[in-house]
Amino acid sequence: MAVLPLVIAPDPRLKVACRPVAAVDDRIRTLMADMLETMYAEDGIGLAAPQVGREERVIVIDVAGRDDPPNPVKLANPEVVWTSDELRTQEEGCLSLPEHYAEVTRPDRVRIRYLDENGERREIEAEGLLATCLQHEIDHLDGVLFVDHISALKRNIILRKLTKIKKQQEAA
Ligand code: K2U
Ligand code: ZN
Known about the structure:
Layout lengths: L25 H16 L4 E3 L9 E4 L11 E11 L3 E6 L9 E6 L1 E7 L5 E7 H14 L10 H20 L1
Antiparallel strand pairs: 1-2, 2-3, 3-6, 4-5, 6-7
The structure holds ligand K2U and zinc ion.
């Protein structure tokens, strides 16, 4: 397994609609394992393939608390097939937009259909933080970032700061 380099915004690779996985084969299983290792190394609770430069519909999640045993979930071609009318507001961040946070409101409960690491069709219903994380990661597969759910004013402030940091790093 390997810890992969993260794609940091602004970056066009975070704004593309990813292609579906044709088959969950050893190449995809290796990607899932590397994404999980990267997510844990970066203290994330979710990660989507475009965040490691891969334009494929793959996400990994583990919302288990620090004091609980790990509970990783690996999803290929995840689809939201149902959302509740009830909403939930959560402060969100993103490993690709480091040190920036904003409140985002999303459906509180979702049902997700996906292929597991063996290529088996599965369906899960989630609520609370797991539901938020699943929606956040599936957004990534369509080139949507959490800042796309907040005001243009706040989004532009965050993206301008990230652009400035990138330019300083490139100049260094
Ligand atoms: O970059 C990512 O996609 C991982 C995200 C996943 C996530 C963000 C917001 C809410 C739920 C999941 C985060 O980096 S994981 C760390 C985190 C968790 C909760 C709130 C803020 C940041
Ligand atoms: Zn993210």
